[in-house]
Amino acid sequence: MADSGDYSEIWVIKGLRNVSPGISPNWRPDVFGKRKSDGKIDGYEVPSKSQTDNEILDKLEDIKKELGDLAGKCKLKNIPSKHSGKPIPKDL
Question: How many folded domains does the chain comprise?
Fold first, then answer.
């Protein structure tokens, strides 16, 4: 996200009220950013071991509903298990 140059702001585990004060609950996507081109908010979630993909997808749908017209892409980003406990390669 940062390397793309497409975002004016990028947050990691910050409440979405930083972007839109009226959001309730104050969702905290793992990573989200504000696009320079249109101001839309893109978000990414990485499921923990205790979360299912469906739980994350439901959360992302809720986030998109709360963001309304500000909603951009919201994606689930799985990290291959071979990387568990190791530094994450930059290209993931």
Answer: 1
